[in-house]
Write the structure tokens for this entry.
Amino acid sequence: MKHLFSFLFLILIAQWSLAQTSNEAADQLRKEGKLAEAIEAYKTTYSQSPDNWQNTYDLACAFALTYQTDSAFHYLKIALEGEESLWPLADSDLFALAGDPRWEEVETYLIQKFQKQNGALPQPEYAKQLLRLIIKDQALDYYIDQAKAAYMKEGSIPQWYYPLGAYKQQIIEENYERLQKLLEKNGWPKYSTVGKLAADAPLLVINHHESESVRIKYLPQIKEACLEKEGSCMEYAKIQDRILVNTDQKQIYGMQFRYNANRELEPFPIQDPEYVDQRRFEIGLEPLKDYLKRKINYEWTVEQKKKE
């Protein structure tokens, strides 16, 4: 009996290992834009490990990215049994589902589950509306990332990117109009009233807007929320740096990038770069060396100092 137990245990371990490997392979296929192959890889893992919520969720996302909505909803419903956050409501991979009546059921389910786990949100309906802004704001990100990858490989922008870029601008304008109405009705969202994820919605919409005047208009509120720990300091830093870069000034946090002659990303020039980590630390950000390595695989070598 002992040998039988050991044998069965080894089989389970082998199946678990295979499932993990398959999942990694599926992730890579999805990253490369091979969605049909990714779906098959995720399905293989699902057949071996149906309780692997992350794999099931990724399978739902892959189906959504190919606009196979019925299959996406099927697997998403299963995956959400293991989900305790509101992240799926802001996940742009699921944008194809957001206009479907079944999406409201997903919203209600997750918000109720989140409140049961974390306490009631003072403005749950506002949170729902803000999360809808986020998922729409980033709706085309997967496909645009594929265009970026093609550019890095070929050195030219693929023709199919242009309609996506035009639609992206339309989304940005629509989202900003909607945001203005929400802010007028509900005020500036806070972590304590709508949750951290939903409170980031205005920052994304404002940062992605074409007009610099929009960012300048809302920067004081964004900074205030950051300093009061009621808003994202990461997004504040991005918006502050974008304003500086777009007005021909040096950035102060190192959050804005450009392509160099080798088609590699690098940060725009930084004011007093030897003190950038001190400025970042003051608003709770990680050292720039770590951020740039993680974000764009860039080696930041400027020795850091501190002002007394």
Observations:
- The radius of gyration is 22 Å.
